[in-house]
Design a protein that fits this description.
There is one protein chain. The longest helix is centred in the middle third of the chain and has 20 residues. 20% of the residues are buried. This protein is 58% helix and 0% strand. The chain is built from seven helices and no strands. With 137 residues, the chain is an all-alpha fold.
Length: 137
């Protein structure tokens, strides 16, 4: 009996694939964003899916290696959160500070507290909240 190879298909064909070049640019932008958010190394690594300490140290020096699909998705969502905050706050510093401020919508937790739970769905939920606050895109 011979089996055919099944070709993988995208669950969301409407979403473009992030190329290696785009992923490297996302990584550099993420490092810069985390500096603006004034994250600790531990916070940054958690938001990136529990990235290894050595990998994060390399990223901060600009040495970006292979980036898997989950990490690409996390960074894209984080950039969406950043974009939403830039729309909501005309002064960038206010958006950066908002990340750490307690918020009633999150039961008194900050947005960073929500994201620090570490699941990609936490990032998605925050992005959805910000989209709703802005009135949708």
């Amino acid at each position: 009996m011979q089996f055919e190879t099944i070709q993988p298909i995208s669950a969301r064909p409407d979403l473009p694939v992030i190329t290696d070049e785009e992923a490297a640019a996302l990584a550099r932008a993420t490092v810069n964003l985390f500096r603006a958010w004034q994250l600790t190394d531990a916070e940054a690594r958690t938001l990136l899916g529990d990235m290894a300490q050595r990998t994060w140290a390399r990223w901060k020096t600009g040495d970006i290696g292979r980036i898997d699909r989950d990490l690409r998705a996390r960074m894209a969502i984080l950039m969406g959160i950043h974009k939403a905050l830039r729309y909501l706050f005309t002064e960038p510093a206010r958006g950066y500070a908002w990340i750490r401020k307690p918020n009633e919508a999150f039961g008194g937790q900050s947005a960073l507290g929500v994201m620090m739970r570490g699941e990609i769905t936490d990032l998605i939920d925050l992005r959805s909240y910000l989209d709703a606050e802005r009135g949708g895109w």
